[in-house]
Amino acid sequence: MNPFAAPLNVNGRINFGEMRDNVIIFIPFGLLLNVNFEKIGFLPKLALILVFSLTCELIQFIFAIGAADITDLITNTFGGFLGLTLYGLSHKYINNKKLDRVIISVGILLLVLLFYYRIRFLHFINM
Predict the structure, then answer these.
(1) What is the distance, to the nearest Å, from the Cα of residue 49 to the centroid of all Cα atoms in its chain?
(2) Would you call the peptide bond into 28 cis, given omega within 30 degrees of 0 as the criterion?
(3) How far apart are CA 107 and CA 74, in angstroms?
(4) Which residues lie below 8 Å from residue 86, measured CB to CB, with a gap of 6+?
(5) Which of 68, 33, 34, 64 is closest to 54 using CA atoms?
(6) Total Cβ atoms within 10 A of residue 19
(7) What's the distance, CA 97 to chain centroid?
(8) Contact 104, 35 (CB under 8 A)
(9) Nearest of 62, 68, 58, 85 to residue 22 by alpha carbon
(10) pTM across the whole model
């Protein structure tokens, strides 16, 4: 497996959109790990993100859902790394409790929007 050799779009070029999406999806995971596990160090949290991403890729491979790819593993882990780092940088300038409340509130809002999108999308498929 060659990292970043796939996925290709219709024109045969690298699909940076999917890689970008993988990074963006895992940023909140890193943020929420910091909110919930403040006393655990940076490297164990990063290892947890890596193991979670690897588990997702293995499930895709075992059940033939989508395509398991080393690029996804790298970009997912990088997204989690960014989330952990952003929290660490924000933590220096913003009160912990306020930062945690903002992260949790935004996370809940995004979750509700995701459910709305999924329900709306599935509703149109069933019509």
Answers:
(1) 9
(2) no
(3) 23
(4) 27, 30, 31
(5) 68
(6) 20
(7) 23
(8) yes
(9) 68
(10) 0.76
> What is the pLDDT, as a whole number, of residue 10?
61
Q: Which residues contact 53 (CB under 8 A, 6 or more apart)?
A: 26, 72, 73, 76, 77, 80
Bridge partners for 108 per DSSP: none
Residues in contact with 58: Cβ distance below 8 Å, sequence separation at least 6, in sequence order: 68
pLDDT at 61 over 70: yes
Number of residues assigned to the chain? 127
* Cβ atoms of residues 57 and 72 within 8 Å: yes
Of the ranges 28-42, 47-61, 68-82, 94-108, which one carries the lowest mean pLDDT score? Answer: 94-108
Structure tokens given for 97: 């409790």
CB burial of 34-43 (b: ≥16 within 10 Å; e: otherwise) equals: bbeeeeeeee
- φ/ψ of 53, rounded to 5, equals -65, -40
Burial code (b: 16+ CB inside 10 Å, e: under 16) for 103-122 equals beeeeeeeeeeeeeeeeeee
